[in-house]
Amino acid sequence: MAARSYDDALIARDLYRFFRAGEEETLALRGVSLRVARGETVAVVGPSGAGKSTLLSCLAGLDEPSGGEVHVDGVRISHRPETERARLRARHIGVLLQTRNLLPHLSVRDNVRLAQGAVRGRPAAAAEVLLDQVGLGERRHALPRQLSGGETARAGLAVALANSPAVLLADEPTGELDGGTERLVLRMLRDRAEDGCAVLLVTHSPEAVLIADRVIRLDDGQATETGGTGARTAGPDVREVRHGSG
């Protein structure tokens, strides 16, 4: 096997995911492989039910693939106990879900501090700096229910970035946002990539696709690369997307 490139922060190989309901079995992922390099932004698109959220859950270690492997920052996170996956996720991955990752009874600042608590040695002041970066310094004491839609999106992004992750995974990060707020959040995601993070976002937004270096389309659990319009071009060693045979 060829040596793994140090530029690849996220590697997925031959991912399959089966779901069983009674006598029926659904194959949500069919041999999906992909790579995302540090400093790269990849958009995953496709129709509802194509397997996008399932893929993101497997990449984040929130769900286990039925077959295949996921490596993040040089560490295999798949096929490990849940507690071990959670520890590795806290250290290497930022996850921005549609629910924005916020606990309703905690202030914005305390949500960020809780996420930072998983990483030893992170000073409390780092939460203040991060909130300033996403434009929420003056709203740090607000509860999630007191935030606007755009503020909620930025607070969720701050939580996802709290551990300075090597990989940032975002599920519909701009869903239901107005145009101005969408562009702001996308600029923040792109800035994070330019700082060396590997960014993968699941999206239906044409605006989000425009910031991507590469675009991967999922149809019926299979992946094809359709190009990209971002500023950077990935080298050939990080452009692999293979097709499953299912």
Automatic annotation (TrEMBL):
<keyword id="KW-0067">ATP-binding</keyword>
<feature type="compositionally biased region" description="Low complexity">
    <location>
        <begin position="223"/>
        <end position="235"/>
    </location>
</feature>
<dbReference type="InterPro" id="IPR003593">
    <property type="entry name" value="AAA+_ATPase"/>
</dbReference>
<feature type="domain" description="ABC transporter">
    <location>
        <begin position="10"/>
        <end position="245"/>
    </location>
</feature>
<comment type="similarity">
    <text>Belongs to the ABC transporter superfamily.</text>
</comment>
<dbReference type="InterPro" id="IPR027417">
    <property type="entry name" value="P-loop_NTPase"/>
</dbReference>
<dbReference type="InterPro" id="IPR003439">
    <property type="entry name" value="ABC_transporter-like_ATP-bd"/>
</dbReference>
<dbReference type="GO" id="GO:0005524">
    <property type="term" value="F:ATP binding"/>
</dbReference>
<protein>
    <submittedName>
        <fullName>ABC transporter ATP-binding protein</fullName>
    </submittedName>
</protein>
<feature type="compositionally biased region" description="Basic and acidic residues">
    <location>
        <begin position="237"/>
        <end position="246"/>
    </location>
</feature>
<dbReference type="Pfam" id="PF00005">
    <property type="entry name" value="ABC_tran"/>
</dbReference>
<keyword id="KW-0547">Nucleotide-binding</keyword>
<dbReference type="InterPro" id="IPR017911">
    <property type="entry name" value="MacB-like_ATP-bd"/>
</dbReference>
<feature type="region of interest" description="Disordered">
    <location>
        <begin position="222"/>
        <end position="246"/>
    </location>
</feature>
<keyword id="KW-0813">Transport</keyword>
<dbReference type="InterPro" id="IPR015854">
    <property type="entry name" value="ABC_transpr_LolD-like"/>
</dbReference>
